[in-house]
Specification:
about 725 residues, mainly beta, 22-stranded antiparallel beta barrel, five-stranded mixed β-sheet, 5 helices, globular
């Protein structure tokens, strides 16, 4: 969709004043203070189970972590990468391309930037599934909350959630006028400014909200070739929304978002000499390059560029009718990516990569949810999804001795019907059962590397080829309330990750099949000691068949070829602990730990598959945070927060040749709010111990070896004013 079309759509939405009603607030807390002054843990209300009304997280028989707007703000969350460090068994990491997600939960995810790779962790913003891994690391600004659901979520969320789901909910218009503005600065030339205003536009019928943010960064790194800063980023977000309360029982909300990020591409740090045992000297080494001892120095002969633009438009309507709530959620999302990356990350002209990708999608869901009586609550719905993408890539290799280009197209549509119901057998025993039926069609055309002109104008395509598939994803769980504050549960679930075609410059061959999972989970949720201690436990075993992996395999049409095949089977077992404790009034501790044992049972071409580790899956993850809130006599408030997040070691590649050591990140902030509550000043710092780590790295054979380093120690100050 063009920018003009986007503006026309947004204008049309505003003209008809279509905004969704105030649905149950996600991750919002409700106070339970009793008649004394003793602090107690609040309920967290979640909506991801799509019931007629919000539910207390502690009452839901699933492993989930939810964060409200205040928690996200106090933690200094910038995007979903930051959120992932706050939950157990969750790794929400970036890829080698700006804005591309490589998310994993409970050992299952994707690693790489191939556009046809379906996610294993689904991202949903305001009920809209993000169909592409590209454009998936937008900044979390003006959000009401984030829910992370661990384990397969196929019944309610459909395909491509075999690892789990991340649900993001935007802040909604309010009929109570308010506004706030924020400015901030930090080291490395960081600057930010944002503003939010909301209030009634037409009495108690129409409310609006406008949120705008801009951020700039000079870059964390120094390019020793030019002597200039590297890693520059300029981003902005514009988020208008409207809510139309047509009647007490019918409301509509329209939301739009424009996001842009320009500047330098993802930083690639070339490694020379190579680190793989027994490797021969690579191109940078033969040309005399040696990697700097300074982790934050890089060396590029080609600095590259980045330009990512994302548009999202959503209309959600809610109608209280027939004893329940009829909900319609319809949305479009378009992603445009233009990236040039010096992939070898050295002064050598080893690997210059240029990517141009355009994706557009449309989806709509119609569901009805009702609390029929004390025995039965249910949700039933229909879902349709359609997306198209055009992917282009050009590579200049080995001092321009090889210049090749590729292009591919994909059309994908999916239809689903689902039902999920709670049966309250007794006051303490609840059985939840659900099933989802999905039909999916994919049609692909591809021109392999060498089959396109370098400007992509002339290509010799193979295809189109079409694959059709269907799937049934059931789920059943049993929950037992030990008392009003303790729940135990067990569940069994099946889910799938879509099959399809490998579209990354290789020959177009027959499709690979869907990846399937059978998952079992047991859990405990308890609020103890007069709700001053919260303990949530979960243990699981997930069995995967037909795992999709890029290997050297045998194609019926092309013979021996490197492509995506259903090459493996695996079993992932693990356990998770989440604890929140009110130590004293105003002083709260939270901690989480995740253990993941991911084992291959089969792997094509591997003699001992059990010895091979999953890519970018640490065995151990953990976090601990302390928050202290002090209310002063004059009415002012001081909030201090400190957190440490641990990630165990993991491998970057399937062959387990490149490894990232374990690391711990330490963050802290102190916020002071004046007595009238009008303004707040926050001093913050991230990665205070300046851990040197790289979320990902790769080997390029003779052309080099690289790492994609993370940010150093950062700090800054932020001033927020509100009315």
């Amino acid at each position: 969709m063009t920018r003009k079309s986007q503006l026309m759509l947004a204008s049309g939405l505003a003209a008809v004043a279509m905004s969704m009603a105030a649905a149950p607030t996600m991750a919002q807390t409700t106070t339970d203070a009793g008649q004394d002054s003793v602090s107690r843990l609040d309920d967290i209300v979640v909506v991801s189970r799509k019931r007629a009304s919000g539910e207390a997280l502690q009452d839901t028989p699933i492993a989930a972590t939810a964060f409200g707007a205040q928690q996200l703000e106090e933690a200094g969350v910038k995007d979903l990468t930051d959120v992932g460090r706050m939950a157990p068994s969750v790794s929400l990491q970036p890829s080698s391309q700006k804005g591309v997600q490589n998310f994993a939960i409970r050992g299952m995810g994707v690693s790489g930037s191939t556009p046809s790779d379906e996610p294993a962790v689904g991202i949903f913003q305001d009920g809209i599934y993000w169909g592409s891994n590209y454009g998936a690391l937008n900044e979390l600004f003006d959000m009401e909350g984030v829910e992370i659901l661990r384990g397969p979520q196929g019944t309610l969320f459909g395909r491509n959630v075999t690892g789990g789901a991340v649900s993001v909910r935007s802040a909604r218009p309010s009929f109570n006028p308010s506004g706030e503005g924020t400015i901030g600065i930090g080291n490395y030339g960081a600057k930010e400014a944002s503003g939010v205003i909301t209030g009634p536009l037409i009495g108690d019928k129409l409310a609006g909200r406008l949120a705008v943010q801009t951020r700039r960064l000079d870059g964390y790194f120094t390019n020793t070739v030019t002597g200039s800063d590297y890693g520059e980023s300029d981003s902005y977000i514009v988020r208008p929304s409207l809510t139309w309360q047509a009647s007490p029982t019918f409301s509509v909300t329209a939301l739009a978002e424009w996001y842009s990020d320009t500047g330098d591409p993802t930083v690639s740090r070339g490694i020379a000499p190579c680190t793989i045992p027994g490797c021969t000297p690579n191109l940078p080494t033969t040309e005399g390059f040696v990697t700097s001892d300074d982790f934050y120095e890089v060396a590029y002969n080609e600095p590259g560029s980045n330009d990512v633009d994302v548009f999202l438009g959503v209309i959600e309507a809610n109608w209280d009718v027939f004893g329940g709530v009829l909900t319609s959620v319809t949305g479009v999302r378009n992603v445009s990516t233009r990236v040039v990356t010096d992939y070898d990350g050295t002064p050598s002209a080893g690997f210059l990569q240029q990517i141009a990708q355009d994706q557009e999608q449309f989806s709509t869901e119609l569901r009805f949810a009702a609390d029929v009586n004390n025995f039965l609550s249910y949700t039933v719905g229909l879902y349709y999804f359609d997306q198209k993408f055009d992917f282009r890539e050009r590579r200049s290799l080995n001092n321009d001795l090889t210049n090749i280009a590729t292009r591919s197209h994909l059309d994908n549509d999916s239809f689903a019907a689902f039902v999920d119901a709670d049966f309250n057998i007794t006051d303490k025993l609840t059985v939840t059962a659900g099933v989802r039926y999905t039909e999916e069609t994919k049609t692909a055309s591809a021109a392999a590397f060498g089959a396109c002109s370098l400007d992509w104008e002339t290509c010799t395509f193979t295809g189109p080829l079409t694959t059709k598939d269907d799937n049934i994803s059931p789920r059943i769980s049993v929950g037992y309330d030990i008392d009003d504050n303790q729940l135990v549960y067990a569940s069994a679930t099946r889910g799938f990750r879509s099959g399809g075609f490998s579209l990354r410059g290789t020959a177009l061959i027959e499709p690979y099949r869907a990846e399937e999972v059978t998952a079992y989970e047991i859990g405990y949720k308890g609020d103890l000691f007069d709700r001053r201690l919260r303990v949530n436990l979960a243990a699981y075993q997930n069995t995967y068949d037909d795992l999709q992996r890029t290997v050297l395999g045998v194609s019926e049409s092309a013979g021996v070829v490197q492509s995506v095949f259903n090459a493996a089977a695996a079993t992932v077992t693990g356990a998770e602990v989440e604890v929140t404790a009110i130590v004293t009034n105003g002083f709260e501790l939270t901690a989480a730990y995740g253990y993941t044992d991911a084992q291959y049972d089969e792997f094509l071409g591997v003699i001992d598959p059990g010895s091979r580790k999953f890519v970018r899956i640490p065995e151990n993850t953990g976090t601990i945070a302390a928050r202290y809130e002090h209310n002063m006599e004059d009415g002012a408030q001081l909030v201090a927060r400190a957190a440490a997040q641990y990630t165990g070691d993991y491998f970057y590649d399937d062959t387990n040749l490149l490894q990232q050591d374990a690391y711990t990140l330490v963050d802290a902030s102190v916020a002071y709010t004046n007595p009238t509550g009008v303004w707040t000043v926050t001093v913050w710092g991230k990665n205070l111990t300046e851990e040197e780590y790289s979320p990902w790295g790769s080997t390029l054979g003779f052309l080099g070896e690289n790492r994609f380093p993370a940010a150093p120690r950062t700090f800054g100050i932020r001033l927020q004013a509100r009315y």
